[in-house]
Amino acid sequence: MEALINDTYLNKSIEKILGCATLALYGEDIRFSVLLAIRDVRDYLTNVKAGDPAANQRVFQNSLTALANSTHPSMPDYKKTIEYAATLMTVELGE
User: Within a domain: residue 69?
Assistant: First the structure.
């Protein structure tokens, strides 16, 4: 996978989400795994990564959206998984 963000942790998080997207192609329910990955990303962006957390979240969300938009039309479940992850970046997840 090409590095989308100049941050090893975030790139590994994207790889986790893409792994879930691959499992979705085989009918696996991946929603909880994606939710956990996004919770970890949001925690990292809020508590560890330097800079404005809201801006960092938008950059990560935009990266996910770009990935979803570049997905081949023959893989709708793969795309839906990435879109789901992107939407989780916009909602309040609570504790």
Answer: yes
DSSP conformational letter for 25: H
pLDDT by residue for the chain (95 residues), tens only, comes to 444 568 899 999 999 999 999 999 999 999 999 999 999 999 999 999 999 998 999 999 999 999 999 999 999 999 999 999 999 998 665 54
Q: Let me know: does 51 contact 60? Beta carbons within 8 Å.
A: no
Domain assignment of residue 44, given as a range:
8-88
Task: Report d(CA 49, CA 45) in Å as an integer.
Answer: 5
Calpha distance 95→65 (Å, rounded): 25
The DSSP result for 27-69, as a single string, is T---HHHHHHHHHHHHHHHHHTSSS-HHHHHHHHHHHHHHHHH
